[in-house]
Amino acid sequence: MKIDFYCPRWGSEHTGWPLFATQVTQAGFTGVEVFPLGDTPNNAGMTDVLSDAGLSYILLHAELHEGKDFNRYKDALERNLYALLEYQSRDAKPQFIVSQTGREYYSPAQMAECFAICDRISRESSVKIIQETHRNKWSFAAHIVKDYLTEFPSLELALDFSHWVCVSESYLEDQDDAIELAIKHGRHLHARVGFPEGPQVTDPRAPENEIALMHHLAWWDRWIAHLKEVGVERATITPEFGPYPYMPYSPFTTTPLASQWEINCWIMRLLKERYES
Q1: Rounded distance, CA 57 to CA 22, Å?
Q2: I need a surface site. Which of 14, 17, 116, 140 has the fewest CB within 10 A?
Q3: C-alpha triplet 119, 113, 154: angle, nearest 5°
């Protein structure tokens, strides 16, 4: 099975697209994962640069500003998804859209309306829209997602177990049934390592974070094994360690405790060796 690794734009917004594309290519990534609506003026030429560099791309969607008013949120969801679809390269569409949809306090009936918007726009555009497991969204916790997947079996997920570890304040030892069901619905993976008190360890290479890393590797192994079992030929993974405040600063400074870029490249190399051999 071939695995394509995507580099997060998150944390590198200060780097111009031509230089960033060069860095991504030299590091060995297949493409980038980006939330272009977060910085629209500086992303105008993004798709042309990526096309010239031979890089593919995944688009991210998130909307919090309109969350309190559900009707306004639905309008914003539809508007933003259509805006994302404007980011088309000369040669290709986005691989898919990863959507942080809804809010944690929306009812299942409200989320059904949100899912219907995603499904309709996906069919119209032929661009798949999948749902990210994320805090403060409908998918904030393993047990909640289990119930939703039972009610909405067509949902596909971008798996990020780090959020669930933080929300549950555990390594989900007593929720393996929810993990297993989520794995079966997993379409994409955000490879970040969380721990019971937060969604991101300082550095997964450090021995004090070995337990957290081993738990996540075990879940990622199960996802890869499932994909192979069902005959998937190509998987996508984004190492998604983030900048401040996910990456803490040294006190009284703006110096991060570790290099986000180096960690994401290390995660990619670790998983390449682990799965492609």
Answers
A1: 14
A2: 14
A3: 45
CB contact at 8 A, 138 and 103:
yes
- Report CA dihedral (258, 163, 222, 263) to the nearest 10 degrees: -10
pLDDT bucket at 231, cuts 50 / 70 / 90 = very high
* Residue 90 reports pLDDT greater than 70: no
- Average pLDDT for 204-218: 98
Amino acid symbol at 71:
N
Contacts of 248 (CB under 8 A, 6+ apart): 202, 256, 257
DSSP string for 116-149: HHHHHHHHHHT--EEEE--TTSTTSSHHHHHHHH
Query: Smallest Cα–Cα separation from 187: which of 149, 130, 142?
Result: 130
| For helices 108-125 and 142-151, angle between their N-to-C axes, nearest 10 degrees | 70
Which DSSP helix (H) or strand (E) runs through 192? none
193, 219 contact by CB (below 8 A): no
Q: What integer is the mean pLDDT of 77-83?
A: 96
| Averaged pLDDT for residues 196-206 | 98
pLDDT on residue 65: 80
- φ/ψ of residue 40, rounded to 5: -55, -45
User: Do 213 and 204 meet the contact criterion of CB atoms below 8 Å apart?
Assistant: yes
Alpha carbon 167 to its chain centroid, in Å, reads 17
Residue 44 carries which side chain, given as an amino acid letter?
A: A
Q: Which pair of structure tokens corresponds to residue 113?
A: 């309306």
Which tokens is 215 given?
Answer: 């738990």
Residue, of 219 and 63, whose pLDDT is higher: 219
CA atoms within 13 A on the CB side of 240: 24
Question: What CA–CA distance (Å, rounded) separates 148 from 152?
Answer: 6
